[in-house]
Amino acid sequence: MVAPAAQPVDLHGDGEVQASTAARRAAQGRVRSAVNGALVIDTDGGVDDVLACLTAEHSHPRTLVTTVGGNVSAAQAAQNIAQFTALPVAVGVDPPDRVPGYRHGTDGVNGCSDGVRRRVDEDAVGVLRGALQDPRTTVAALGPLTNVAAAAGTLAPGDLRARVLALGGIMDCPPGLQDTNVAADVTAARFTASRIPQFTWLGLRDAAERTRTPLTTVAASGAAELARAVAQRTAAAWGTVWGGQDAAFYDVAVVCAALGVTDAAAVRGAVSAALDAVSV
User: Fold this and answer.
1) What's the pLDDT score for residue 22?
2) Pick from 144, 43, 21, 46: which is nearest to 88 by CA?
3) In whole angstroms, what is the distance from residue 64 CA to residue 137 CA?
4) What are the residue ranges of helices labelled H in 133-212?
5) What is the predicted pLDDT for the residue at 152?
6) At residue 73, what are phi and psi to the nearest 5 degrees?
7) What is the mean pLDDT of the chain?
């Protein structure tokens, strides 16, 4: 497993990471000083989110992560990414009236959370605010767009110069497949798509096709325990199209597209590499 981002810290009874003001500000400074020209991944911390972050970690030297509530709370999402990667992580906000679906288990990683609380930054919206002003930066939005909308809403339209690529859209998808990212915060999705000039959706059909991975590959990988349930669920969802033997890891396609990689063979190779980078 990839080394954790920071040493564990003590908790108070509410389960939140507690750090001194000085330590928190230092962490914020490290994250923000690296924003310009970076790849910023805004994620809700599920299984394919972890694989996507691992892909970026090994492909882009300046990758930052912000977390939003979706699969799990923004706070838990941050802990998931900090457990499986060494990337800088900043906690964001949960969508209004969020109702977690726990499609990736109650911890977001199919029961593979180690329970260790790691120190993370606390100002994802601030990180995104800086990122959105830099034309060299790309934001890959893997979850609800609550954080991105909050950051964009504080800036004049002319200051929104970054490229934003988000997972969303179910055109040509099998019946019953839900656009959970958009549904989790419809207002944020509409606002962000209309507000940011360089905003692009990557539909679930395209993301699925690019990341199509045999269940046998998942089972033989280091991430078998982590990814098994999600792989089986997505294989069932795409069963009418693929026959039920291949999984989809949508978020890896978004990060690959943000890195300029859209060829299906290359993206599937990235999925396989990320699966093998995990040990649980």
Assistant:
1) 44
2) 43
3) 11
4) 146-152, 180-184, 186-195, 204-211
5) 98
6) -65, 160
7) 88
- Alpha-carbon distance of 212 to 244, in angstroms, equals 11
pLDDT at 43 over 70: yes
Q: What are phi and psi of 100, to 5 degrees?
A: -65, 135
Which CATH number describes the domain made up of 21-203? 3.90.245.10
Question: For residue 12, how many other CB atoms are within 10 A of its CB?
Answer: 8
Contact assessment for residue 139 and residue 165, using Cβ atoms and an 8 Å cutoff: yes
DSSP result, 47-103: HHHHHHHHHHHTT-SSEEEEE-SSSS-HHHHHHHHHHH--S-EEE--PPTT-----T
* Residue ranges of domains in the chain: 21-203
Contacts of 27 (CB under 8 A, 6+ apart): 19, 88, 119, 120, 121, 122
Structure pTM?
Answer: 0.86
* Cα 175 → chain centroid: 25
Burial grade of 169 (CB within 10 A; 0-12, 13-18, 19 or more): middle
Contact indicator for 268, 211 with CB cutoff of 8 Å:
yes
Q: What pLDDT does residue 103 have?
A: 80
Do 247 and 79 touch, CB atoms closer than 8 A?
A: no
C-beta of residue 157 within 8 angstroms of C-beta of residue 195: yes
Q: How far apart are CA 70 and CA 173, in angstroms?
A: 21
Sheet with 39-43, strands from edge to edge, namely 89-91, 63-67, 39-43, 138-141, 163-167, 199-202
Instruction: Decide: 202 and 166 in contact? Cβ < 8 Å.
Output: yes
Which phi and psi angles does 90 have, rounded to 5°? -125, 135
